[in-house]
Write a structure and sequence with these properties.
CATH topology of the largest domain: Growth Hormone, Chain: A
Number of helices: 23
Number of domains: 3
Largest sheet: 2 strands, antiparallel
Shape: globular
Structural class: mainly alpha
Radius of gyration: 26 Å
Helix content: over 70%
Distance between the termini: 47 Å
Strand content: under 5%
Strand order of the largest sheet: 1-2
């Protein structure tokens, strides 16, 4: 034990040395950071298993004897000395399937203070061991009871912690990586396009691959949503750091900068997909009720609003990436905080279908076996034949395109179209931060509308508003700088806010698929993965298309707005940027209106329960 402790201290010591030596020794820093996070995750998971043993006890409401030494029923206990135990990792939503499971899954205590061997999930234990188990469960129960006393829903909070951690790093990555590789690492246009093509292919393949793996694998770290998040979180946070540390001092057009971008994009997206697919599946599987899903949306938006402030603080502390050493140090800190948040979800979240592997063996007695489940091609075909799914995918493709467009290029457009004497560096940081924080405030303020009107009309009206905003700013012109800055911010807010609601139609599509094909468990990850197969390429197409257009008007030579350049060429570049900012969103929103109007699932907000949880 002492040797193991010394090894852990050595790893931590090396990690701190690497952190203090930024930007030197990056490879060693990554290795030490990764080892530390993986080891910490393993220890936390082991602790969780010890405190909540056996596994099923964390899935349902159980019972214990309040006093192990007292054979008579303790005060406040039920018949035969059974006392209610608050389920540490479970769902607190009403009308769940756990009501029936609660009756079947109990543990009994004999007069000697030992659990009976006839209990469903408990073996006969000696008195001291049983007392230790009860003490451990009591310590775990303090957290959800404390959260309930604060008026928080533990299940929704556990779900939202992954949103908090992911939004911290996703927004920083999407906002800064294009400018970093183009302006600071000076990657060539050819290498940039090659990296984006590889990223686009990998982006399209990994989503249905991981979706099928998570829905059909027998390995717990893949089949159980919370374990996928638990073990994927450290690697996800580590992949986030790859882009911010150059592998050497890059010369303009260095081939290694292209390889660096390719590795950074593929590694980050692969781990992002693995973790967030599991979280998306949790959204559909925690509850089947519209009101409960709106609660998840509400908690998730609050978490996303807090996490999105990382862009604001990053811009303020690093002066919008001018102080690169501070930028790197801030991102290391954000990666650690993000990992901790997602690990919380891995320890405390729960799905209705986490016991599907054990239930599958029971169902096999009726002739249904897991091996008889359809293959990935069959599942994808069944999903794609859903007309509502096809309409949603078409609309979502353009939404992902615009999301990548504003996330990657708002910083560049603002630097060129808005003079420095109009907006100071601090004002720009606030503007960029507002583009990531205000969408969550908008969604939270529309919570009552989601109950009364439903997501279908809200999303449709947002597209109409984007068309109107584009026409207005086009008529106004680009020399009204403050209004242009407001338009850029509002466009980011509108696109991100409406995108935040897209889990609701996908969850309804999952429900209808489960009913149509009479599936024993929903193929949540597969639906989200198939959606990503067709929409994720837009994340690469947006920067490729925009960079290609800008370079045709000399952006590569004029990308530094402080240089003395040809005024006529700079004016042409700024005109092209302005038309991209107002005309492109307007045209895309018009296409989205045409794609979204025929969507048929419009009234799920009026149905309390689409099918009974039992």
């Amino acid at each position: 034990m002492e040797t193991k402790w010394k090894i852990q201290m050595f790893i931590l010591h090396q990690f701190l040395i690497g952190l203090l030596q930024i930007p030197g020794g990056h490879v060693q820093l990554f290795v030490n950071f990764g080892v530390l996070l993986v080891h910490a995750t393993q220890q936390l998971h082991l602790l969780g298993q010890i405190l909540t043993r056996p596994k099923q006890e964390t899935a349902v409401l159980g019972w214990w004897r309040k006093s192990a030494a007292t054979p008579a029923p303790a005060r406040g206990c039920g018949p035969e000395g059974f006392c209610p135990v608050w389920r540490p990792n479970g769902d607190l939503f009403p009308n769940m399937a756990y009501k029936q499971q609660q009756k079947n899954r109990t543990r009994k205590c004999s007069s000697k203070g030992k659990f009976d061997s006839s209990s469903t999930f408990w073996r006969a234990l000696p008195g001291p061991v049983m007392a230790a188990e009860v003490k451990g469960v009591r310590s775990v129960m303090k957290l959800p009871r404390y959260l309930v006393n604060l008026g928080l829903n533990p299940a929704a909070l556990a779900y939202a912690m992954t949103t908090l951690g992911a939004s911290m790093i996703n927004n920083i990555f999407s906002f800064y990586y294009v400018k970093l590789f183009i302006n600071k690492y000076q990657i060539s246009e050819g290498a940039f396009h090659q990296s984006q093509v590889v990223y686009m292919l990998w982006n399209a393949i990994n989503d249905p691959l991981f979706g099928y793996l998570q829905d059909n694998s027998k390995v717990p770290c893949c089949s159980q949503r919370r374990l996928s998040i638990l073990y994927g979180a450290p690697l996800y946070s580590l992949a986030f750091l790859i882009a911010w540390f150059p592998w050497r001092s890059y010369a303009p057009g260095d081939w290694l900068s292209g390889l660096h971008l390719m590795v950074a994009l593929c590694a980050f997206d692969g781990l992002l997909t693995f973790v967030l697919l599991a979280q998306c599946a949790l959204f559909a599987e925690i509850s089947n009720h519209h009101q409960n899903r709106l609660r998840l949306i509400k908690y998730s938006q609050v978490a996303s609003m807090i996490g999105s402030s990382s862009v604001l603080f990053c811009g303020m502390l690093s002066k919008n990436m001018e102080d690169f050493a501070s930028f790197q140090a801030f991102n290391v800190m954000v990666a650690i905080l993000s990992c901790v948040c997602m690990i919380y979800t891995g320890l405390h979240s729960q799905s209705q279908f986490d016991d599907k592997s054990s239930e599958g063996s029971v169902d096999s007695d009726d002739g249904d076996s897991k091996f008889s489940s359809p293959g990935v091609k069959t599942l994808m075909w069944q999903i794609f034949m859903n007309r509502d799914f096809r309409l949603f995918v078409l609309m979502n493709f353009f939404q992902v395109f615009m999301l990548a467009f504003f996330s990657n290029f708002t910083l560049i457009f603002a630097e060129h179209l808005i003079p420095p004497n109009v907006l100071s560096s601090l004002a720009r940081s606030v503007m960029y931060g507002a583009g990531f924080i205000c969408p969550q405030l908008l969604v939270l303020s529309c919570n009552r509308l989601l109950h009364s009107v439903g997501y279908y009309r809200i999303i449709l009206y947002s597209f109409y508003l984007e068309v109107f905003m584009g026409i207005f700013i086009l008529a106004l012109g680009r020399h009204n700088y403050r209004i242009l800055a407001l338009f850029l911010t509002l466009s980011m807010v509108m696109v991100q806010a409406s995108f935040s609601l897209f889990s609701l139609p996908l969850a309804d599509i999952i429900d209808s698929d489960m009913q149509k094909y009479k599936r024993s468990t929903p193929i949540s990850s597969m639906v989200f993965g198939t959606n990503a197969l067709f929409t994720k390429p837009a994340q690469s197409l947006a920067p490729m298309l925009v960079i290609n257009i800008l370079n045709q008007f000399g952006y590569e030579e004029l990308k530094d707005p402080g240089k003395h350049v040809n005024a006529s060429a700079l004016e042409n570049l700024h005109s092209v940027m302005f038309y991209l900012v107002c005309v492109l969103p307007m045209c895309v929103a018009a296409i989205q209106v045409l794609a979204w109007r025929p969507f048929s699932i419009r009234n799920s907000h009026t149905v309390d329960s689409k099918y009974i949880d039992s």
